[in-house]
Structure to design on (264 residues):
């Protein structure tokens, strides 16, 4: 597969699938495909859940309503067990994070050539369809969580309380303020970085494995058959990975915001 129609080498095939459709230059480069799919999936999530909420009935629920209620109840229980403060934003935020990231991860279930080939037929040279394999997307999500951590830390503890938390822990002595500030700053900054890199790394690796398996198709009958077997096996296992990564991101967000609400 190539924009000009010629066959790609294995290295070129892999590189082609890992290249974003971009617009702009330098620091103003936009990953158009990542933005399109992430925003589109977010709108899909809001539309489906809003439609179910408007049509909800107290009688026997339909399959979609039952499924949505199971997700909402699961997230609500997770928040109640983990978050120890009082904040009406946390449960909706956790639900949004879990479902939105799951939907972005679920795009990895689509065979790697289907949508890029369709895009090429429409004149689009590159298309990455899994937003969570884009470091810009995962860091944007993590940055949003980080800003909420800072906001609620200051709101609950005050500026002075937050400053004391950074300078008087873990060693409660004025002489240790520089050491405390260094340790606590690293711990604080590590939260969004770990959130972003964990999600990106797992999904990027999973996508790369799908691409490598796709290289086996069309070579010979034995390799193609092996490719189908490996594809199905990895597909089944990857369902667990994409769900687990959405759950971990959600749970860490709840934990971090719960810590931000703790006033020592």
């Amino acid at each position: 597969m190539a924009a000009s129609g010629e066959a790609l080498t294995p290295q070129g095939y892999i590189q082609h699938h890992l290249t974003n459709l971009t617009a702009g230059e330098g620091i103003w480069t936009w990953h158009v495909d990542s933005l399109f799919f992430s925003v589109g999936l977010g709108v899909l999530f809001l539309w489906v859940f809003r439609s179910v909420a408007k049509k909800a009935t107290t009688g026997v629920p339909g399959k979609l309503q039952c499924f949505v209620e199971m997700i909402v109840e699961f997230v609500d229980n997770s928040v109640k067990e983990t978050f120890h403060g009082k904040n009406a934003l946390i449960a909706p935020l956790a639900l949004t994070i879990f479902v939105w990231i799951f939907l972005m991860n679920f795009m990895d279930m689509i065979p790697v050539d289907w949508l890029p080939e369709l895009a090429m037929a429409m004149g689009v040279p590159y298309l990455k369809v899994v937003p969570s394999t884009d470091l810009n997307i995962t860091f944007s999500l993590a940055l949003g969580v980080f800003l909420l951590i800072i906001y609620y830390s200051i709101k609950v503890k005050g500026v002075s309380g937050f400053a004391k938390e950074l300078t008087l822990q873990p060693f409660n002595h004025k002489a240790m303020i520089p050491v405390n500030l260094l340790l606590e700053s690293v711990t604080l900054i590590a939260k969004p970085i770990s959130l972003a890199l964990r999600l990106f790394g797992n999904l990027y690796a999973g996508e790369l494995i799908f691409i490598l398996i796709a290289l086996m198709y069309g070579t010979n009958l034995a390799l193609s058959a092996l490719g189908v077997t490996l594809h199905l096996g990895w597909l089944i296992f990857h369902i667990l990975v994409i769900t687990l990564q959405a759950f971990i991101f959600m749970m860490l967000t709840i934990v971090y915001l719960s810590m931000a609400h703790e006033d020592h």
